[in-house]
């Protein structure tokens, strides 16, 4: 301390310092609102939160005639408005899974009963974890790498794992966007190319593969994907899909090239437009014959499914992915917020919007699938009545003859036909079949099967079908893009925050990342590319993300401490969240995620990984097991995404072990200095927007700041001169 006092007196003739206590961040917070986006380059700000070592170094420079630099401007961007931020978070969390995964899970797992289970898990597990990520990002103001490095240097690998998972997801997610571009481009023609089976020009007959399946299935598997019969047959590149993938990556690159400055502007359209389309489809769908049956099937509760462990696992997994937990994108987006932003309200609001969007999408899906199922059943009745009429023309007359008018199929209702078939179906022969609406509705479809086969088949029967098809695939394009922006932000923000070289070349980093994504993404544009998309979707993200969130929850609740974290949130929000969060983080959420991890591992161990392949000979889908090389690739994907966690831990342990006990303490202090609680990005660059606080409430508080260290803030000479002028007056 004597050395510090000597340095202070030596610098006093040129700088005035203000001493402020590290535990009192409340006043500092009020002065650290980020500038709006257009003013990123404005002005310069003084360095803050300097450690004793920095002050000593400055004293050496001062005594040798050097002048301390006030630092460069803090160019970390910020949201223009709260609406922009909310749209970004909603756009990332509300993705394709809300449209084609959630409705399928409701369909297969008890309808209304599954929704109740989903809401329960969302409230107990989803919202607390979502709030935890929002608060950590907003408080520390770093990407995922910086946040977890700050909480514990040994857990820095969590952030790198999040980046790896984001990269894997971005690779195949943009392929789905490319498919949407392809279908949207083919929607500008009448009739739609998937409405009818094509004619073989050689034989002048209907193509056999299409005749054995359906026009929509044939167009998807043969025209769009030109798919092989298995993952072992790679085939050549699909040139049309390669061009669509290049276009998709170009759109992402242009939207992300200026960071959130550019992507946030796109969000105004990409996040809002899907809701407009969903409402339009809902209104149109409610007018369709079969909509009532579809909605009834959706909401009819089957409480008995709660006894099945598989249903709980699927509900928890959907909550987990719907909110985008573990990707680092939630943390990245919240790090651009003002420090006093009410992130607790944001967590509740975004979670509610996400769930209501899933319900809205499910309504749209079920009314359309109800319409499709009823059309299939009515066509079935028409065909059977045609066969009965043929039997009548040949003089057949039996006691089981239908009592309704067979010559007018439109007048025959489904209940009448089913009642007749129930009584006499066993006597009419195998040519006459049952036409069951419930059975047709029970044939659930998800993912690409829902979007590119079932939904396209239903829209082909709409009046003005090209308009509805264009609208639908434009909605998918925007849903995918808004999620893609968040995924890329989960990669770029942590890298730019923690590597100054990358931070100084943001544009080059964005372009190179997109170019690398396109080159690796060529794997998915082979004729067997759809099988690799399925592999990445099922295994590259699920298990690694669950592991990441388990470590995140453990780091906050047990390593850093739930009470300390709530203390920091109290300073940030100026009110303390309910103590219930402490117990949810420490026990409920952690045990739930560990249970989900165990269930996922057991499922992988006892059930050999399989994929659905298209057999062009039988014109049908078949389930195949992954070959040995594919299993090795699958294992490498999981390991590549999870290895950063243990590697980061052992790297930090070896580093501290080499430094010895005193070196380890010094290393911890350096880490605390580099990542200050109130604005860690400023500490990294030795810059600050803070106005020093001279007040101290005197309350002992554990925080991200190092305890027992005084922080010095050097004020510019101009203020010193102005004060001297006032004294002379």
Automatic annotation (TrEMBL):
<feature type="transmembrane region" description="Helical">
    <location>
        <begin position="507"/>
        <end position="525"/>
    </location>
</feature>
<feature type="transmembrane region" description="Helical">
    <location>
        <begin position="626"/>
        <end position="650"/>
    </location>
</feature>
<keyword id="KW-0813">Transport</keyword>
<dbReference type="Pfam" id="PF00209">
    <property type="entry name" value="SNF"/>
</dbReference>
<feature type="transmembrane region" description="Helical">
    <location>
        <begin position="467"/>
        <end position="486"/>
    </location>
</feature>
<keyword id="KW-0769">Symport</keyword>
<feature type="binding site">
    <location>
        <position position="479"/>
    </location>
    <ligand>
        <name>Na(+)</name>
    </ligand>
</feature>
<dbReference type="GO" id="GO:0006865">
    <property type="term" value="P:amino acid transport"/>
</dbReference>
<feature type="transmembrane region" description="Helical">
    <location>
        <begin position="583"/>
        <end position="606"/>
    </location>
</feature>
<feature type="transmembrane region" description="Helical">
    <location>
        <begin position="157"/>
        <end position="182"/>
    </location>
</feature>
<feature type="transmembrane region" description="Helical">
    <location>
        <begin position="115"/>
        <end position="136"/>
    </location>
</feature>
<dbReference type="GO" id="GO:0046872">
    <property type="term" value="F:metal ion binding"/>
</dbReference>
<feature type="transmembrane region" description="Helical">
    <location>
        <begin position="348"/>
        <end position="369"/>
    </location>
</feature>
<protein>
    <recommendedName>
        <fullName>Transporter</fullName>
    </recommendedName>
</protein>
<keyword id="KW-0812">Transmembrane</keyword>
<comment type="similarity">
    <text>Belongs to the sodium:neurotransmitter symporter (SNF) (TC 2.A.22) family.</text>
</comment>
<dbReference type="GO" id="GO:0035725">
    <property type="term" value="P:sodium ion transmembrane transport"/>
</dbReference>
<keyword id="KW-0472">Membrane</keyword>
<dbReference type="GO" id="GO:0015293">
    <property type="term" value="F:symporter activity"/>
</dbReference>
<feature type="binding site">
    <location>
        <position position="98"/>
    </location>
    <ligand>
        <name>Na(+)</name>
    </ligand>
</feature>
<feature type="transmembrane region" description="Helical">
    <location>
        <begin position="240"/>
        <end position="257"/>
    </location>
</feature>
<keyword id="KW-1133">Transmembrane helix</keyword>
<feature type="binding site">
    <location>
        <position position="94"/>
    </location>
    <ligand>
        <name>Na(+)</name>
    </ligand>
</feature>
<feature type="transmembrane region" description="Helical">
    <location>
        <begin position="545"/>
        <end position="562"/>
    </location>
</feature>
<feature type="region of interest" description="Disordered">
    <location>
        <begin position="679"/>
        <end position="704"/>
    </location>
</feature>
<dbReference type="GO" id="GO:0005886">
    <property type="term" value="C:plasma membrane"/>
</dbReference>
<keyword id="KW-0915">Sodium</keyword>
<feature type="transmembrane region" description="Helical">
    <location>
        <begin position="85"/>
        <end position="103"/>
    </location>
</feature>
<feature type="transmembrane region" description="Helical">
    <location>
        <begin position="315"/>
        <end position="336"/>
    </location>
</feature>
<feature type="region of interest" description="Disordered">
    <location>
        <begin position="27"/>
        <end position="48"/>
    </location>
</feature>
<feature type="binding site">
    <location>
        <position position="91"/>
    </location>
    <ligand>
        <name>Na(+)</name>
    </ligand>
</feature>
<feature type="compositionally biased region" description="Polar residues">
    <location>
        <begin position="679"/>
        <end position="692"/>
    </location>
</feature>
<keyword id="KW-0479">Metal-binding</keyword>
<dbReference type="InterPro" id="IPR000175">
    <property type="entry name" value="Na/ntran_symport"/>
</dbReference>
<feature type="binding site">
    <location>
        <position position="354"/>
    </location>
    <ligand>
        <name>Na(+)</name>
    </ligand>
</feature>
<feature type="transmembrane region" description="Helical">
    <location>
        <begin position="266"/>
        <end position="287"/>
    </location>
</feature>
